[in-house]
From TrEMBL:
InterPro entries: AMP-bd_C, AMP-bd_C_sf, AMP-dep_synth/lig_dom, ANL_N_sf. Residues 163-244 form the AMP-binding enzyme C-terminal domain. This is Uncharacterized protein. It comes from Paecilomyces lecythidis. SUPFAM superfamilies: Acetyl-CoA synthetase-like. It holds the Pfam family AMP-binding. It comes from the Eukaryota. Residues 9-109 form the AMP-dependent synthetase/ligase domain.
């Protein structure tokens, strides 16, 4: 919507009061940019999984905090755990989100191994890194950072792809993007971005856009979050029907490119 403002002008959106997002984190920068265009809209976000029977938390119309997935729903309990399984009691401290509610399923049908790995005493280990933060209205909000398995480890420091993606989408040159970690001998992994150019700059050279986007990240993010893995321009970002970025396909694409380069050598 932000990258197709001329198209939106063809439609009457005066009846829209609220917009609700899910499937992937909505960055605070993107939400604020949309709010600037549509100041009367209530831009809300929710989080849940198939195993939790829809959502476990959501933004209420009177307690909106951009970047947050909102407050826990009635009947839902949540814990934040360290990789060692120790419960975190402090705010603003990331760990794995574990939830329990009447809506959480009992397990996976005919799959005892996955059931044992995911469910414990009624608690479901979501596999998502999250933290609890106190919002402007002094209420507790759930912040989803990213899938734990998709976090990029740069010299032992964690980088959430969703954070960099939200930052890149803030830039007018970017219509869509995805970030993955690629192997690096010195750092272990480094971030690489796949970018779909905005229509307005489709004819611009890749090198000039690359320089601008790298500077955009370097001006606002810590050094270990810089796009040292490079930027590759693509026509489309692979996504599931629900809108989740299929980073696995991008990692496969990167591995195949490495194999092809090795074969040429």
């Amino acid at each position: 919507m932000l990258r197709n403002k001329q198209l939106l002008k063809k439609f009457d959106l005066s009846s829209v009061r609220s917009l609700f997002t899910g499937a992937a984190p909505l960055g605070a920068e993107t939400a604020q940019e949309l709010q600037n265009v549509f100041p009367t809209w209530a831009i809300r976000q929710g989080y849940g999984l198939t195993e939790t029977a829809v959502i476990v938390c959501a933004t209420t119309p009177l307690d909106i905090w951009f970047g947050s997935c909102g407050n826990l729903l009635p009947g839902v309990e949540a814990r934040i755990l360290t990789p060692e399984g120790k419960e975190i009691h402090e705010y603003d401290t990331p760990g794995q989100l574990v939830v329990r509610s009447p809506g959480v399923v009992l397990g996976y049908l005919n799959n005892k191994k996955s059931t044992r790995e995911t469910f414990e005493d009624g608690w479901m280990h979501t596999g998502d890194e999250a933290m609890i933060r106190v919002g402007p209205n002094n209420t507790e909000h759930v912040w989803i950072l990213d899938r734990i398995k998709e976090l990029i480890k740069v010299k032992g420091l964690q980088v959430a792809p969703a954070e960099l993606e939200a930052h890149l989408l803030e830039y007018p040159m970017v219509a869509d993007c995805a970030v993955i970690g690629i192997p690096d001998e010195a750092a272990g992994e480094i971030p690489k971005a796949f970018v779909v150019k905005a229509h307005e700059v489709a004819g611009s050279s890749d090198s000039s856009v690359t320089q601008e986007l790298k500077k955009h990240v370097e001006d606002h993010k810590a050094r270990h979050k810089w796009l040292k893995g490079g930027i590759e321009f693509v026509d489309i970002i692979p996504k599931s029907p629900s809108g989740k970025i299929l980073r696995r396909l991008l990692r496969d694409k990167e591995k195949q490119a490495k194999r092809n380069a090795g074969g040429k050598l």
